[in-house]
Specification:
This protein is an alpha+beta fold. It is 49% helix and 20% strand. It starts with a helix and ends in an 11-residue tail after the last strand.
């Protein structure tokens, strides 16, 4: 009986010691991980990398360090890794089904890094939402909307979605339409439009000259289309300025009703996204 009690005491002491050591390693390990991540953020190792790559790398390192910490704690507790692997293997189907969403997002994150359909800071539209890319991690991508809402998109669904990137190209074309009374002379209105567009220094002559033409008509109205190329960063400012200038020009030259009505054919994104 004494030997049994002695053996139990030794086992309890050993188990207690392992548990305390595991807790100590857990606390110290988490502190160490935070410190290493801070050093990574402050270091210049990733300075030359594009923002999306930096964000993804930080996420990858963070998850890798936590996995290493978990394996270390399991080892300290005395659980044979062979047993852990055997249990995981035997439960592989169940675990796979339970984690299929996470694994899909992980695969999506890797594919996003390989194919790079967008970069950090780009304004994109996908899966029915749109915003500026703020962060790309292993499992999800974070967008920030124009009204400062944070949207988290799973990488699996994002990789399989149609993605529209409004910031990828240096130049964009502003398309505007308006109507005026059918009694107006099309050539006169067209010339006024062209003069108004050319007066703005942000309008580019390449890849195409500004376009201002009669493109449709009804029994009551003439419909004109204006197209002007500009730098992507100037798009929204130019769009609104041209809208105002065209409206004022039509009023100044007494272009008859129907009242000038300007709408955009493109883009899909909300106003102010490139500001």
């Amino acid at each position: 009986m004494d030997k049994l009690l002695s053996s139990l005491s030794e086992l309890a002491a050993e188990a207690g010691g392992r548990l305390l050591l595991a807790l100590a390693v857990l606390v110290f390990g988490r502190m160490l991980i935070r410190s290493l991540l801070k050093l990574l953020n402050k270091s210049r190792l990733l300075d030359r990398a594009e923002g999306t790559v930096r964000s993804f790398t930080r996420s990858f390192v963070k998850i890798g360090l936590h996995i290493l910490l978990t394996v270390s704690i399991i080892g300290i507790l005395g659980v044979p890794m062979a047993s852990v692997i055997t249990v995981l293997a035997s439960a592989g189907v169940t675990v796979g089904l339970a984690l299929q969403g996470a694994l899909s997002n992980l695969a999506g994150g890797v594919m996003l890094m390989i194919f790079r359909p967008f970069r950090q800071g780009d304004y994109i539209s996908a899966t029915g939402v749109e915003g500026t890319v703020r962060e790309v991690t292993l499992f999800y991508t974070v967008l920030l909307t124009v009204d400062n809402k944070r949207i988290t998109l799973p990488n699996g669904g994002l990789m399989n979605a149609t993605i529209t990137d409004f910031s990828s190209e240096e130049l964009r074309r502003a398309d505007l339409r308006f109507t005026c009374a059918r009694s107006e002379a099309p050539a006169r209105v067209q010339e006024l439009l062209r003069e108004t567009v050319l007066a703005d220094a942000r309008v580019l002559s390449q890849p195409e000259e500004p376009f201002a033409r009669l493109t449709g008509s009804t029994d009551q109205a003439l419909e004109f289309t204006v197209r002007a190329w500009c730098r992507s960063n100037d798009y929204w400012e130019l769009y609104y300025d041209l809208t105002q200038c065209i409206t004022e020009t039509m009023a100044e030259h007494r272009i008859q009703s129907p009242a000038v009505r300007v709408t955009a054919e493109e883009p899909l994104e909300k106003e102010g996204t490139n500001r």
